[in-house]
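Support request from a user on the community tier.

User writes: "When I paste my structure tokens into the form, the page sometimes reloads and wipes my input. The last time it worked, I copied everything first. Here is what I submitted, just in case something in the input itself triggers the reload:"
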């Protein structure tokens, strides 16, 4: 994107939980999954289970062999950081 990488707290992540604006965190990186939504082999509903939250565990338990870091690289919006660590 054009805006650079963000530091995203869990409370910020939580606000991006709709199909058109679906963020998730995987292994400390935050992604906007919306453009991938229609291409996910497991469907939209499954993908939306991790929208707005840390999806690391569910992703790993579903398909640990999938390289999401590579697949979603262009969709990366930033890094997950602890609550309270970003002053707005
Ligand atoms: C299948 C990517 C999140 C559930 C797949 C496949 C890919 C993929 C590439 C095909 C794997 C294969 O055939 O070996 C992703 C990416 C995700 C994501 C990049 C990152 C956000 C999730 C989540 C769930 C999920 C959170 C929730 C449970 C599934 C299921 C399948 C699947 C059930 C099997 C579909 C089938 O073969 O019928 N996903 N996935 N995925 N995914 Fe995901």
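"...and here is what came back when it finally went through:"
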């Amino acid at each position: 994107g054009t805006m650079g990488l963000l530091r995203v707290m869990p409370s910020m992540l939580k606000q991006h939980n709709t199909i058109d604006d679906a963020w998730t965190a995987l292994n400390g990186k935050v992604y906007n999954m919306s453009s991938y939504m229609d291409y996910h082999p497991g469907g939209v509903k499954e993908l939306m289970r991790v929208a707005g939250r840390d999806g690391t565990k569910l992703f790993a338990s579903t398909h640990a062999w999938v390289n999401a870091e590579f697949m979603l690289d262009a969709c990366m919006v930033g890094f997950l950081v602890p609550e309270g660590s970003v002053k707005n």
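Agent notes: The reload is a front-end session timeout and is unrelated to the input. The mean pLDDT is 96. Residues 9 and 83 are 5 Å apart (CA to CA). Escalated to web team.
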